[in-house]
Amino acid sequence: MRPEFELLVACARARLDTAQADRVRRLLSEGLDWDVLVPMAHKHGVMPLLHRGLQGSDAGAVPPSVLNQIRRCFYHHVACNLFLTDELLRILDLLEAHGIEAIPFKGPALAALLHGDLTLRPFADLDLLIRRQDVPRAKELLMGQGYRPSWHLTPLQERVYLRAWCEYVFRGEAGQVVELHWRLVPRYFVFPLDPEELWERLQTMPLQGRPVRTFSPEDWTLILCVHGTKHLWERLRWVVDIADLVSRYPGMDWEGVLRRARALGVERMVLLGLGLAQDWLAVPLPVEIASRIRSDPRVRALSAAVEA
């Protein structure tokens, strides 16, 4: 693991304890290629965590120009996150006023769920899960607010599209992106979770003082592990999400998680995501799950391939 990536991993913890703070100081003292590190932090979606991790660094450990660049990026993320969160709440109120139930996921909802803090997880768009039959009405409501779909379909094309695909993408007047989902992944990807099941297990959480509904921790575990696998775990941020979720909900129904993962055909995806969080971020896992990860040679091989 190259030292720049190791620093990102060291900073990407829910809490920086003394050992991790010492690790950060050691890595800073060894000399880093900042021209590599800063773009890497952007790519992996951990710039806010890098900013936080460097706050207590010794004077001179980070070049002032680099520290200013990281600070500017962080405040840009904060401004974008707050703007998108306000827009999300506005859209939720709009849909609710017209009798359309919507579940925000990823984006602001995930940042609030994992951190209780909208500044520590960057996001660039808004994702909402709605029922498929509500998509045409939701589309018209968004278009009435100045949003435009990424593509224009005839009525026949739209009916086929709703059966075959999983999301509708819209862009607002300020460039913000809203994605309406009626399935979590395309049909071709192996994750036959019926979205109606999710509605039965919803929880309520506060978002900027407003109660919003979100998935249960067990459902989030499946969703995040499948999402990371779908994208080949290209970003450290997705491993951090798993680690933060496990740390925040240690009393999760792990037996239920594995049972449902097995029934849905995604057990190895879940074990891989949990194994990456354990290997890179030292997340404590139940003994049974840690044993399953160690005993599956394919999970270990995939984990090594992801790290490479």
3D architecture notes:
- With about 300 residues, the chain is an alpha+beta fold.
- The protein has 15 helices and seven strands.
- It has helices at about 5-10, 20-30, 35-45, 45-55, 65-95, 105-115, 135-145, 155-165, 195-200, 215-230, 235-250, 255-265, 265-280, 285-295, 295-305, and strands at about 105, 125-130, 150, 165-170, 175-180, 205, 210-215.
- A five-stranded mixed sheet has the order 1-2-5-4-3. A two-stranded antiparallel sheet has the order 6-7.
- Helix 4 (about 45-55) crosses helix 5 (about 65-95), helix 11 crosses helix 13 and helix 13 (about 265-280) packs across helix 15 (about 295-305).
- The longest helix has about 35 residues, at about 65-95.
User: Which sequence of strands runs across the widest sheet?
Assistant: 1-2-5-4-3
Distinct helical segment count: 15
The number of strands is: 7
What's the overall average pLDDT, rounded? 93
Helix/strand-derived category reads: alpha+beta
**How far apart, in Å, are the first and last alpha carbons?**
8 Å
Q: What is the makeup of the main sheet?
A: 5 strands, mixed
Helix fraction bin:
55-70%
Into which percentage range does the β-strand content fall? 5-15%
**SSE succession:** HHHHHEHEHEHEEHEEHHHHHH
Whole-angstrom Rg: 20 Å
Which keywords apply here?
alpha+beta, 58% helix, five-stranded mixed β-sheet, 7 strands, two-stranded antiparallel ribbon, 308 residues
